[in-house]
Amino acid sequence: MPVCVIEEGRKGPDHQGTIIPISNISTSRNHANHSVKGRVVQKGPLVSSSSHNFILKAVLQEVGPSPQRASINMVLLGTLAKDFSQAVSEGDVVVASGFSVGKSPTALKDKRHPCNLMLSGEDAFIHVRVGPAPPANATSPKAVKRKIPAEGPKYSYTKLNNLKAGEVVNVYGVVVFFKQPYMSRGSDFCSSLKITDQSQLKVSCTIFCNKLESHPQILQIGNIVRMHRVKAHPYNDTLTLLNTFGFSALVFDGTVGAAVEPRTASKSFHFAEEDRRAVEELRLWAASQALPRADATLTLSAVQPKMYFDLTCQLLAKATIDSMCTLLRVWDGTRCPHALLKVAAEPDMVEGPTSFSEEHEKLIASVLVYDNHVPFAQQIKPGDFLRIYNLRAIPGWVETPDTSSPRSEEVNHLSFHLHGGTAYGRGIRPLPDDSPEIQDMRRAMDAFQVHHEVSHHDVNDSVLCGAWATPPCCPGNVFWNVPHAAPCNLLTSSRLIPAERTCDHIVEPLTLSEVKRSLPGGTHHHVRVQLRSYEPRRLHQALKLYCSKCTSMQDVPDEERLDNIFSEAGADADSDPMQRWNNPPPWIRSDDVHIHAELTRNPPVRTLNVSTSAQLLSEGKVKELIFITGTTLQETCHLAAGYHNVVPMKLSEGHLSLLDPPAPFLFRGRKRFYRCQQCSKTSLKEPNTDGVLDEKTISEALGVQMLKFVLLMKFRLQDATDTLDVFLWRDAESFFNVSADAAAANQEAQDSIRETLDLLCPPWDRAGERPWMDACLRAYRPSEDDAQTFYQICHTSKSTSKPPILNPQHSKLSK
DNA sequence: GCTTAGGGTTTG
Fold it and tell me: Which residues touch A455 (CB under 8 Å, ≥6 apart)?
């Protein structure tokens, strides 16, 4: 037998050759006498294959203390695959021998070993140690003995046409009718369902159980249910099934091709390959039958008056109307083509917000639930996700106090009623936040909120304005404006992993707790993480000025600070600076410029003295470069629209000099250039006017060490094991696919960064919605003496089909 | 405790 099971504690046969580490596997080596030992971390399904009879894929991971555990794909063929499927479980440690080594076609995608192990034929062996090794942090050394499925409990399932009165059986069936569990007159909740199978017989089942979670979790007609220990009772002239002692139920999606994942609250249940097959067979059979409509669920956008339907929605607020009626205010992110009735409620009876934004209100449906559903409605809370079964869309009208007849535009407002009783499966079921049934709806809700509450909100709203908010005191400043992310982008891209590694380090992915435990020092780690939070929330603060010479970093000065610097410098410089300038350089020429801008307050037209180089003046290129004194910040910005390069200066004690940092030394269009105070040795030489006059030639002439825009953020990453604070700096531009210069100068770039962050860390949402990203982290210590390890995200980019935003000149705001 | 419900032609 090619799969040999060894009980924990016993020695296995010793014909497996030398055990070599997984990382040593190579196509260029002869592994005939080698074995590989590892834990089965993934075990795929047994798949029938025409060429090999059976095929099964599994992933083997190196066992041992190393935090960087190599893993390798393993492909088993024929009988070996079948035996492996029965005898081996995820978590088992196996030794594989007699394999051949091939190139793994999925290595790039799964980041596992570039080779895979092929096991087939007489020589291939798998030795299994049954019982999981204790996890790294477990204290108990006791090995758990586990039954091998093949020897474990065997269940047989009775077809519905073979039921005998009084017999306790196990059954599979397709749900053709169901009621959510409801409180019976006795001591238990009662669920009622009707199932069918290939025998075509339809059988009613009644489940009494005082625990809600033990009831079959049926969400839709067409679901497949497996029930253990139900007893056939004769009733009228048919048999019905009732649960007996030891009853358990699994429910599966009934869609052909969907994952076969049992829905159950039970932590231990038997589920084997034959169960998977049974589910798939029933799905196929059901698809070929004229069974009741599988899905009565509609979105509000598809509802027509007088319809009965099932609604999947989120509760926003609720209100007690009277003892027999509760109002639920719900939405599903879609817009109903018919106007929705807003049912009035006493404000002190409302739980949750009493009103919403005008746009939001248009999407909110009023659901009135009656009688037996009222106690259930009392238990649910605003924010909960629900499915309401057999809801009726009732056309009605809004009564206005000043007229006895409804106004024409107010008729046919829809409200929704959940009538009393459980007929037609009427009821309400809460859905968990991570339920697949609500994912589409949540995307629609996100899109709505991003679209309406970000782009149309009031700029002064301090809650929503937290991001690229305009720094204070900046009239007319269009920088750092409020973003408007496109909802369609979010809709499509949130399904993807929105960031991916671009490096070619060959290291195994680690969990964050493993990263924290691993040794420091110049290493790269690959992680799969979510972005839990980030700083700064006001993204203009993420933009810094960096000196590549002294490596200092400083904040970009806000407009208020610059205003002050300009007004201080201009306080005593209103008159012609040439008159008061001791020994002006011989290449400087002055002229008057009239500022007619609406920006000048008093007097409305102001004359400014500007200087330029004699060379430029003689060439008629005055527009190329001017030096100005005594202007306000606004006037400087205004001049920068008409002159290519504007250098603001101040005159003090007869000397003309650049404004003090952090004032920009140069304005070029919308762009501003800053200097490092420490590294600049300012002078005033005539710039070389031969070539292009740009920030580089001007900074050289002025003896200025220019500062560079950089993006610096702190991310808090999380995975199932831990959280980790990391910096995003050196590779921030490639991460966002946006240059810091562009982020400093244009809205499109800022929006793009905002979008990426909103995608990774949805602002209105709970953690469950956050996408995962693959990231590369560099661990480092700033110096030998530092005890603390820091991490930076590197070689990681947001996934994008858009071209990078690199050129600030493309700003849609540029004139 | 050993019952509860046993779909259904749909109130407000």
Answer: A482, A483, A484, A485
Read off φ and ψ for residue A445, nearest 5 degrees: -65, -45
Q: Taking residues A4-22, report their average pLDDT.
A: 63
Q: Could you count the other beta carbons within 10 Å of the beta carbon of residue A650? A: 22
The answer to whether the C-beta of A424 is closer than 7 A to strand B is yes
Find out whether A715 and A776 touch, Cβ atoms under 8 Å: no
Write down the pTM of the prediction: 0.46
Strand B nucleotides where any atom sits below 7 Å of a protein CB? 1, 3-12
Helices (H) and strands (E) in chain A, counts: 17, 41
Q: Is the pLDDT of residue A149 over 60?
A: no
**Nucleotide with C1' nearest the A368 CA:** B12
Q: Cα dihedral sign for A506, A509, A514, A515?
A: positive
- Residue A234's nearest nucleotide, by CA–C1', is B6
A235 touches strand B (CB under 7 A): yes
Query: Residues A52, A56, A61, A63: what is their CA dihedral angle, to the nearest 10 degrees?
Result: -90
**DSSP letter, residue A247:** E
Cβ of A206 near strand B (distance < 7 A): yes
How confident is residue A184, by pLDDT bands cut at 50, 70 and 90?
Answer: very high
Calculate the angstrom distance between C1' of B10 and CA of A292.
18
- Looking at per-residue confidence, does A598 or A254 come out higher? A254
Q: Look at residues A356, A350, A287 and name the one whose alpha carbon lies nearest to residue A317.
A: A350
